[in-house]
Specification:
Layout: H1 3-12, H2 26-29, H3 39-46, H4 50-63, H5 81-90, E1 94-95, E2 105-106, H6 121-127, H7 133-143, H8 146-162, H9 181-185, H10 188-205, H11 213-232, H12 238-254, H13 261-279, H14 291-310, H15 319-334, H16 358-373
Helix pairs in contact: 1-8, 3-4, 4-11, 5-7, 7-8, 7-10, 8-11, 10-11, 10-12, 12-13, 12-14, 14-15, 14-16, 15-16
Length: 380
């Protein structure tokens, strides 16, 4: 057996750990097995054959239609030279975590998820966003090289095993140099980031040999734990709250098979509908008065709208929501210089023209918002 496949087998067969045993029915209990398309899964599970039920569930997802993620276009996958490098380096556990710390650090043959080579909180937090996993998925899809998929599965299971969600007191996270690993691995912002981008990984790696039915159960178990963690640990305000709400919407829309999916979606929509009124001034500026997070907020509000619309959930964002997004675009443009840069005040950062998408968004988002709004009964 090849080393990576052996590692996956050992991780899946491990004894008591956060990974649940193959015969554990907990994962199936999280799913609405009465949904159309899951009849065979339900029958096999009811008969006590969860191994076959897991394979049937995997077949269901591989054949599933009608659920899309507009951010991950499988028909037009592209990979930048940097992304290819990050994917290749990750095969040797040299992980791209932060562009400010290059070349990337080596995290060990036996991955040390608590390695902290520089005492910068961002380096420790952002390790747990696994920015190299989506590039690995792209590299797999474009090359067909199963080694990328096998390594991703091994790293995914390794992260689950070594970073359990244990009880913690958020109030004790003030001194980050003394904080336990759970404070870094399960900070709500990082959890929400994983909620969004594990959808991309799911889509890219789903056809792979290493993506077995047993692995799928672990993936769904972990994903559900992430979404539920967010519902209990929303940030009080600001852009973190917006990210968490938007990504909870993504979870509820992309995995409608979960019994809790509708609740996740409704919770996220409710927060964004409320916060767009509280966080955006009448002139269109997001109240943190930071052009970087203003730009991100435009993305957040619109991505949620587009995800909902692309999957048949129209009408849950009122006309005022769409109009506010357009005002936010105008406000960003009004604050920009002719060379597409913006003043570097607050936590804003310099962006090259190719990194600034808002000018293209002015026409693209307005067109898409107008197209979407045509289907809303109370819109323009």
């Amino acid at each position: 057996m090849k080393p990576i496949k052996l590692l996956i087998a050992l991780l899946l067969a491990a004894g008591p750990s956060p990974l649940r045993a193959q015969t554990d029915t907990t994962v199936f209990s999280l799913l609405d097995l009465a949904r159309p398309g899951l009849e065979r899964v339900a029958a096999l599970h009811a008969a006590g054959d969860d191994t076959a039920a897991a394979e049937a569930l995997l077949d269901y997802y591989r054949r599933r239609t009608g659920v899309v993620c507009p951010e991950a276009n499988l028909a037009d996958i592209t990979i930048t030279p940097d992304e290819q490098r990050w994917a290749d380096e990750a095969m040797h556990h040299r992980f791209f975590v932060h562009k400010g710390y290059q070349p990337s650090y080596f995290y060990g043959d036996d991955i040390d998820w608590e390695y902290w080579p520089v005492k910068d909180n961002e380096l420790r937090w952002q390790l747990h966003r696994m920015k190299w996993w989506v590039p690995m998925g792209k590299a797999y899809r474009l090359s067909g090289d199963e080694r990328y998929a096998a390594e991703w599965c091994a790293e995914y299971l390794d992260w689950m095993r070594k970073n359990p969600l244990t009880a913690y007191d958020e109030g004790k996270a003030g001194n980050w140099t003394q904080a336990e690993n759970v404070y870094f691995a399960w900070r709500p912002l990082e959890v929400s980031d994983r909620l969004e981008f594990q959808i991309h990984q799911f889509l890219y790696f789903l056809p792979a040999e290493a993506f077995s039915g047993n692995f799928l159960l672990h993936f769904l178990d972990n994903y559900h734990r992430h979404a539920e963690h967010i519902t209990r640990h929303f940030s009080a305000k600001g852009n973190h709250l917006l990210f968490q709400a938007q990504r909870l919407i993504f979870a509820g829309v992309f995995f409608p098979e979960f019994r809790d999916a509708a609740r996740w979606r409704e919770t996220g929509v409710g927060i964004l509908n409320r916060e767009i009124g509280e966080q955006v001034y009448d002139d269109g500026m997001q109240y943190e008065l930071d052009l970087h997070y203003h730009h991100e907020s435009i993305d957040i509000f619109f991505k949620a709208l587009r995800m909902m619309d692309a999957n048949g959930h129209r009408g849950e964002f009122p006309a005022a929501y769409l109009a506010t997004v357009e005002r936010m675009i105008d406000a960003y443009i009004d604050c920009s210089f002719p060379d597409y840069t913006t003043p570097l005040f607050s936590d804003n950062r310099f962006r090259e023209r190719q990194a600034v998408r808002t000018y293209e968004q002015r026409t693209t988002i307005r067109y898409q918002v107008s197209e979407i709004s045509a289907f809303y009964p109370d819109c323009w």
